[in-house]
Design a protein that fits this description.
InterPro entries: DUF6894
Helix content: 25-40%
Distance between the termini: 57 Å
Number of helices: 2
Order of helices and strands: EEEHEEH
Largest sheet: 5 strands, antiparallel
Strand content: 25-35%
Structural class: alpha+beta
Pfam family, one: DUF6894
Shape: elongated
Domain DUF6894: 3-71
Organism: Methylobacterium phyllosphaerae
Protein name: DUF6894 domain-containing protein
Radius of gyration: 19 Å
């Protein structure tokens, strides 16, 4: 079974030295996509409103075969916006 390595970047770079056995490229791709929301779930609350989470998938030869990015952007609205009342209803 091929081994893939999942390097993570979120303000710092974390190189995967162990890797994971995956049946094929599609399985590695799916694992990369599932990992990003999990990483973000723990990092976002303590690390700010503007972040990008990147995973680089390398094959056994060290070649990057897939990359994915998950971006989070949070913006605090000022108190004046809350005094406007509820959002208007859409036109019929």
């Amino acid at each position: 079974m091929p081994r893939y390595f999942f390097d993570i970047s979120n303000r710092s770079f974390h190189r995967d030295e162990e890797g994971s056995d995956c049946a094929n490229f599609e399985a590695a791709r799916a694992l990369a996509m599932r990992s990003l929301p999990e990483i973000a779930r723990f990092a976002i609350p303590g690390d700010g409103d503007n972040q990008a989470f990147v995973v680089l998938v390398r094959d056994e030869a060290g070649t990057v075969v897939y990359t994915a990015t998950l971006t989070f952007a949070g913006v605090r609205l000022n108190d004046a916006a809350s005094s406007l009342g509820p959002w208007p209803s859409p036109a019929p």
